[in-house]
Give the backbone structure.
Amino acid sequence: MNQKKRQLIFERLALATPEPTTELIYNTSFELLIAVVLSAQATDKSVNKATIPLFALANTPQTILALGLEGLKTFIKTIGLYNTKGENIIKLCRQLLEQHQGKVPETRESLEKLPGVGRKTANVILNTAFGQPTIAVDTHIFRVSNRTGLAPGKTVLEVERKLDKWVPSQYKKDAHHLLILHGRYTCIARKPKCQQCIIEDLCDFRPTD
């Protein structure tokens, strides 16, 4: 795929979704951080069901620590891997208070040192909370990038680096959410909705049936 096609792809995606953003519900960078940690191998809908009542009661490192691990688990037990995620969130809250005055850090290095936060989560926070042009490659973005030919790669990091290199600069800040939404609703895993796709003529993928 050439750069002209990539430009057209993002022009169309941006035209269709002028203000792309996460479907996680949050009000602060801390709430977003907790929601993203919980969202690993879980749907945004399931996370929102858990975090809306949680954040109504506890939405700071201090108040979540006051709940305690068992108290936190009562809110997140419907989410997969909730035991591990709960333990990480408690440790994360302590670390934020001890090392960052309770605030979410704005650098990848500091974010990745937090329990339960890897490169993908750090990229989401940097992009969505702080407006940095990072691209967190999740399963949707990995699939769309490979299937369309936009940024093919065998690993998440390879795809991320190609997107970082090839996404036109004016779309870099929104590319993360544009690609996720396209993968979530149109370029779906089992049977992509090619007939409804606004970039079908620019895509390398050809359905077999």
